[in-house]
Each structure stands twice: as structure tokens, then as C-alpha cells.
Design brief:
By secondary structure, this protein is α+β, with helices and mostly antiparallel strands. 46% of the residues lie in helices and 26% in strands. Strands 2-1-5-4-3 form a five-stranded antiparallel β-sheet, sandwiched between helices. Strands 6-7 form a two-stranded antiparallel sheet.
């Protein structure tokens, strides 16, 4: 089960934080985000990586995938497959890329409602429910038509 989805910029600043199930206390959250910021900032060379974080005490896995200036992070329990989560991050990035026509940090900051809607289409209560890029994009287009009318 996915506990949280986080999008960071290249310097490690949080652009989006979605927590599906609490995995740390509120007092630890600031320390965790600071540690995550340090880890992401240090991993300049790699695009895919898994972080071992002391705060999580080996109960959870942190899977990261970097696309140019954006880093997608999923925190999940030990039962999830890391490779499947890397693939899911790619699907999420691909949907965002189609929605924003070459997604960048600016798109995420200025359109958090769209990004959250895309995330809602793909993940429900921490479970991946959609992996088809075309269906997710079509659903978003239908939502935009409803909002326009």
C-alpha cells in the first residue's frame, strides 16, 4: 500500500505532498522531509533510487524517480514491489506530461488542482487503480469539459 506521494523539485523543495495513511508522527514529519530533501539533493547522478531512512525504521520503502528538475517519491509498506512502483511513477509522469504538454515545476506549482486530480485518478486510498495513460488523460479531459460548462 502506498502511504504517501511526494513531488520535489531539483533542490528538494516539496511541490506536492499527499498522505494516504499516516506513517510518521507530525513531530517527525519535518525531520523526515529534511532528510528526504538531503537524500534527493545528494543523488544528482541517478534517476531511479530507493532510500533507506532511519526515521521509518525499516517498515517502509521510499522509491524515487527523477525527471530533469522534478523528483517523484512514493513511500510504501514493505509488501509493495519497488519495480512496479517505479513503473507507476513513470505512468504518473507520462499522464502529467500529456496533460501539461511537457510538464515542469511551474505547471505543478501553478496547477495543484490538476495534479491532485491526476493523482486521484491513479491512486485511491493508497492503492493503484489506474495504469492506462490514455484512460487517465481521457478522464481528465471529460472533467475539464464538465467544469467548462
Amino acid at each position: 500500500m502506498i502511504k504517501a506521494a511526494i513531488i520535489l523539485n531539483a533542490s528538494g523543495k516539496v511541490l506536492l505532498l499527499r498522505i494516504y495513511e499516516s506513517f510518521i508522527s507530525e513531530s517527525q514529519e519535518k525531520d523526515f522531509l529534511a532528510a528526504l530533501h538531503n537524500e534527493v539533493s545528494e543523488k544528482k547522478g541517478g534517476t531511479n533510487f530507493i532510500i533507506e531512512e532511519e526515521i521509518l525504521k525499516d517498515q517502509y520503502t521510499i522509491v524515487c524517480r527523477r525527471y530533469e528538475t522534478i523528483c517523484f517519491v512514493l513511500i510504501c509498506d514493505e509488501h509493495e514491489n519497488e519495480l512496479a512502483l517505479l513503473d507507476f511513477i513513470h505512468i504518473f509522469a507520462e499522464v502529467l506530461d500529456k496533460v501539461f504538454t511537457s510538464v515542469c515545476e511551474y505547471d505543478i506549482v501553478c496547477n495543484p488542482d490538476k495534479v491532485n486530480y491526476v493523482l486521484d485518478e491513479l491512486i485511491v486510498d493508497g492503492n493503484v487503480v489506474q495504469i492506462n495513460v490514455k484512460e487517465a488523460v481521457e478522464s481528465l479531459k471529460q472533467q475539464e469539459k464538465i467544469e467548462a460548462s
